Amino acid sequence: MSVYFKENPGFLRASLESIFNQSHMPDEVVLVKDGPLTPELDVVIEEYRKRWVDGFHIVPLEKNVGLGRALQIGIMHCQYDYIARMDSDDICYLDRFEKQVLFIAQNRNISVLGTGIMEFNEQPNDMSSVKILPSSNAELVKYAGKRCPFNHSSVMLNKAAIIAAGSYQEMPFLEDYYLWLRVMKKGYEFANLPEPLLYFRIGNDVIGRRQGWGYARNEMNLFWRGYKEQLISTGNFLYATFFRLPLRLLPKKALSFIYHRLLRQQTA
Fold first, then answer.
1. Pick from 14, 28, 155, 261: most CB atoms within 10 A?
2. What is the pLDDT of residues 61-78, one digit of tens each?
């Protein structure tokens, strides 16, 4: 987990609480402080450090380096072969780790395992929609050429595979997608559990952050680099140019409709 100064202390507490209440407890939690934090965030982190003295490892960075670099540093501080990702404003289902660990124990060929997510606004009982992605490696390899194949904060990763692919790198807002493409090129296998095991917070203007020229430029940079590095095909690069780019330039209401009505399963 990476935390920076703009995070909400209440959201962070809920996220950490969901980790510490897992039916299958992690052997360690590595939290990267991406630069100086607010006193309120430090209070929350210290509270959980005291609750789990031996297993809660804090990696403080002198300055903010961005999510990609912070996660790269965090991975190098992880001691075990498999790493579960978590964002500081999302909430795990209580059996998330148990189900992922069991699946990986039975499928050692899988290097990245994601899950579905339940999207919510401010509280988990204020559910908006469900996002379920393809399950098999063959489906995900095909899917990854056009869209991100994982819900990032739901994944469990094979540390060796991630390092072999170059780990997280700088790619604003899309660090995970760029990593999955490189892991895929190395021949490692993917899977998703076809059920939601994470509450994903969308209330904090998530659509606004994925709309406009700024995000469109970041996305085109990803696809251009992916094309140059032979991570995606010419056809998928053209798809991104003529379909994804115009989507990012739609008004927020129109983009929100596409996300929540056409690309998601509604909860009610």
1. 155
2. 999 999 999 999 999 999
Task: Kindly state the tokens that stand for 180.
Answer: 């999955």
CA distance 205 to 245: 20
Q: What is the pLDDT of residues 207-239, one digit of tens each?
A: 656 778 888 999 999 999 999 999 999 999 999
Q: How far apart are the first and last CA of the chain?
A: 31
DSSP 74: H
What is the per-residue pLDDT across 145-180, written as a single tens digit (0 to 9) for each?
Answer: 999 999 999 999 999 999 999 999 999 999 999 999
Closest CA to 20 of 39, 1, 6, 43: 1
User: One-letter amino acid identity for 71?
Assistant: L
Residue 124 CA to residue 224 CA, distance in Å, equals: 37
Distances (CA, A) of 266 to 21, 134, 234, 263: 28, 17, 34, 10
Q: Identify the CA nearest to 96 among candidates 152, 23, 159, 168.
A: 23
Question: Which fold, 2-211+250-266?
Answer: Spore Coat Polysaccharide Biosynthesis Protein SpsA; Chain A (3.90.550)
Cα of 249 vs its chain's centroid, Å: 24
Place of tokens 């006193």: 39
Asked if 66 and 168 count as a contact pair (C-beta separation under 8 A), the reply is no
Give the whole-angstrom CA distance, residue 155 versus residue 151: 7
Angle at 191 between CA 91 and CA 257, to 5 degrees: 60
Output the CA torsion 233→239→245→248 (10° steps).
-110
Q: How far is the C-alpha of 256 from the C-alpha of 119, rounded, in Å?
A: 13
Q: Give the tokens for residue 200.
A: 């994903």
Q: Backbone phi, then psi, for 26, in 5-degree steps?
A: -70, 155
